[in-house]
Specification:
The protein has 122 residues and is mainly alpha-helical. The chain is built from five helices and no strands. Helix 2 crosses helix 3. The structure holds zinc ion (ZN).
């Protein structure tokens, strides 16, 4: 595999991870934006049926959907990375995308030590 292709795939992995982070923050902001204007109505509705402690817990669960987004997003990113032949060593199949600079500098897998990138003359 050549260095440019490896770096391009590492950049994609990095941007997907950043995208999950941004989506999480946006989802959390949207959750609060939806709940805060109706906070008192939700709290009153739930406390009439289940009591005040349950209503406090329900309001406290406002950011919970963003937790789902972050975990689902990171699982998606990691599964995608695990299937990528550029981000895994062809010999030991371990993930090397997180050690981009080390792999580019040495051209070798940090786990098994075998050469995985082509050596160019530039
Ligand atoms: Zn290896």
């Amino acid at each position: 595999m050549n260095v440019e292709r490896f770096v391009r795939e590492c950049n994609r992995f990095q941007w997907r991870t950043i995208g999950v982070g941004i989506a999480t923050v946006l989802f959390m902001a949207a959750s609060f934006a939806l709940v805060i204007p109706f906070r008192d109505q939700i709290k009153q509705f739930v406390s009439e049926r289940y009591g005040l402690p349950v209503a406090e817990i329900v309001i406290g669960l406002t950011p919970f959907p963003s937790v789902i987004v972050v975990f689902a997003g990171l699982i998606w990113v990691q599964r995608h990375a695990n299937r990528s032949s550029e981000l895994n060593c062809p010999y030991c199949w371990k993930f090397v995308g997180g050690m981009r600079y080390l792999v580019v500098a040495t051209k070798c897998c940090p786990h098994c030590g075998k050469r995985i990138l082509e050596v160019t003359d530039d």
